[in-house]
Design goal:
The protein contains 20 helices and 18 strands. By secondary structure, it is of the alpha/beta class.
């Protein structure tokens, strides 16, 4: 069934065309990724197909009765609470939990950050039923656990999907086709032959093949042009007898030029860095809490030495950006000290773009206090792919990726020797990401990265500092792969074992529960507690298995709405039973711990 059919679409920005004659059809089961350089028109294309804006040319048709859900790059939420935005059913609350927003379920939507709004909008979208989904950068602002969940959800989705993302892992795992926007043209790639697999793999193979064919065609044209030029130069008498048509064809061949490159040269990130001495940044018993007393980081030690490549991972809200702010000096620890070497110069690539004035032009931002760009500044802008009209464009008119690239330029122009990168992969296109990875390979200073892009972390960091969300921080062996393996092992562990592994935090939470007197000591005998604990563990295992079976049946039911409703109600009841069984087990585990019993 055809859900969306777009034919001959065209769009432009002030002083610059984006694309023309773009056609795409989305059918049931299609999972199409949209890729292209920053500023090539990916978001504009999605806005046209979703009906938000009209194309300058072409037409978009929707299948009769097709319900199409849209996640905008900058979504707008209705007034009210987060719970109101996603709905009051259990599915909305469960989805918020999956996407790291459970603690803000009663928060007003107008008090959320941009990333939080994006997660709420995504949760509200995924709990509803759609024949097709149009998603613009859905993985931005999600932590690794949430991205893994979304990836699985999209891979199992049976409707039509149109997706803009720069997460290479998601592109490879999810897409069956890739639509590439390149210099105003569109190319649709789907796996065939030796590169059968994901749409992303087909895109990479086709792009390499197209570039090789272009290089071969240009070499053939040059050889023909040399032959024709020699023919034209054979003396006036001979030329006077030559057919005029062949003369015109020869001149046209000589004057012909190959298609201009999408970008001039490689991204020029190597701007140098100031020498870094033997001492980098040392954190001694550093702790941080917000003024309301909310603890973010418990006291911990860590040293950053020249050449270190540190990735910081953890769930949303664990304090990753806060730790970068502490290292930079934007925040001061509530206890402990941070020592920075005398030669340390920090460059902070902030995910919020706090240093960008949207009313400025690109050239004025680069020139800074000089007033007008120097020759070196003009050359630098060209190295960062800001040339011609792009240098005079107001920053407010740039795409999200172009703003991030400008911010990267402004960070590196100061020649730092310590780089703090907060979500550097958000909005950057695939070419820029690869250039940044190659730059960091040889960069001599210290790099600290907060990112949820698994590919980027694998390629740029050598060790991982994991924040657990409860103030704890520890270095994980095996880098990001080791951390993900540890998380997967925890998720697969039976609920009682997870709770035991999290003690004493679990016991502390139970002790604070209203059904239990704070500080009360159990009067039950050790043998009674052991017996009740065993029974509670069996009940919890049984309830968990039952919930898993219903969830599996729900996933396989297809489009039978009556059966979906029935199984959804059963699953809600099963989840409630799991919650009650887990609470009983936790209460008994707390009793056992008070008596010094081993509950593992």
């Amino acid at each position: 069934m055809i859900l969306v059919d777009a034919q001959g679409l065209a769009a432009s920005r002030p002083n610059r065309p984006l694309f023309a004659e773009v056609s795409i059809t989305v059918e049931d089961g299609d999972r199409i990724g949209v890729v292209g350089l920053n500023g090539s028109g990916k978001t504009t294309l999605l806005r046209i197909i979703s009906g938000e804006i009209e194309p300058e040319a072409g037409v978009v048709r929707r299948g009769r009765g097709a319900r199409i859900g849209v996640l905008a790059q900058l979504p707008v939420l209705p007034e009210g609470s987060v719970r109101d935005a996603v709905g009051h059913e259990w599915r909305g609350e469960a989805m918020l939990h999956r996407l790291g927003m459970a603690e803000l379920i009663d928060a007003p939507t107008d008090q959320l950050s941009g990333g939080q709004r994006k997660r709420v909008a995504l949760a509200a979208l995924l709990v509803q039923e759609w024949e097709a989904l149009i998603l613009d950068e859905p993985t931005n602002h999600l932590d690794l656990d949430a991205i893994a969940y979304l990836e699985e959800w999209l891979a199992a989705y049976t409707g039509g999907l149109l997706l803009v993302t720069h997460d290479r892992h998601v592109l490879d795992r999810v897409t069956t086709k890739v639509l590439e926007l390149d210099r105003g043209h569109a190319y649709l790639h789907q796996p065939t032959g030796w590169h059968a697999g994901s749409g992303y793999a087909a895109y990479l193979a086709a792009r390499i093949e197209r570039e090789e064919q272009a290089a071969t065609s240009e070499q053939v044209r040059r050889n023909l042009a040399r032959t024709e030029l020699a023919w034209l130069r054979r003396g006036a008498p001979a030329r006077s007898t030559k057919p005029k048509a062949r003369v015109d064809a020869a001149r046209a061949l000589i004057d012909q030029r190959p298609q201009a490159a999408a970008r001039a040269g490689e991204l020029g990130l190597s701007l140098g860095s100031q020498r870094l001495g033997s001492k980098g940044v040392e954190l001694h018993d550093v702790a941080f809490a917000w003024p309301d007393g909310t603890s973010v980081l418990s006291p911990f030690e860590h040293s950053l030495e020249p050449g270190d490549r540190l990735g910081i991972v953890g769930p949303n809200g664990a304090g990753k950006s806060t730790l970068l702010d502490l290292i930079d000096g934007r925040l001061e620890p509530v206890s402990g000290t941070i020592e920075r070497g005398r030669t340390v110069k920090i460059g902070y690539y902030d995910q919020l773009g706090r240093d960008l004035d949207l009313t400025q032009r690109v050239r004025d931002a680069v020139a800074g206090d000089k007033g007008a760009p120097s020759l070196e500044d003009n050359a630098l802008m060209r190295r960062f792919w800001f040339d011609g009209d792009a240098q005079f464009a107001p920053i407010s008119t740039l795409s999200g990726g172009e703003r991030r690239r400008l911010q990267l330029l402004l960070t590196l122009i100061e020649q730092p020797n310590v780089l703090l990168l907060d979500e550097p992969t958000n909005d950057l296109d695939l070419d820029t990401l690869r250039a940044l990875e190659e730059f960091l390979d040889d960069w001599p200073g210290i790099v600290v990265v907060v990112s949820h892009d698994r590919v980027f972390l694998d390629r740029t960091v050598t060790e991982v500092l994991a924040l657990d969300g409860d103030g704890g921080a520890r270095v994980i062996r095996g880098g990001v792969a080791g951390w993900l393996a540890e998380r997967a092992e925890q998720a697969a562990r039976p609920a009682p074992m997870r709770a035991a592994a999290q003690a004493p935090a679990a016991a502390k939470a139970v002790a604070a529960a209203p059904t239990r007197r704070v500080g009360a000591v159990s009067t039950k005998s050790p043998s009674t507690i052991r017996r009740q604990l065993g029974a509670a563990e069996r009940d919890l295992a049984t309830a968990t298995v039952a919930a898993d079976e219903i969830a599996a049946a729900l996933a396989a039911v297809g489009n039978d709405h009556a059966e979906l409703t029935r199984l959804s109600d059963r699953l809600a009841t099963a989840h409630a039973a799991v919650g009650e069984a887990e609470e009983r087990w936790l209460a008994l585990a707390a009793d056992a711990e008070e008596l010094g019993l081993d509950v593992s």
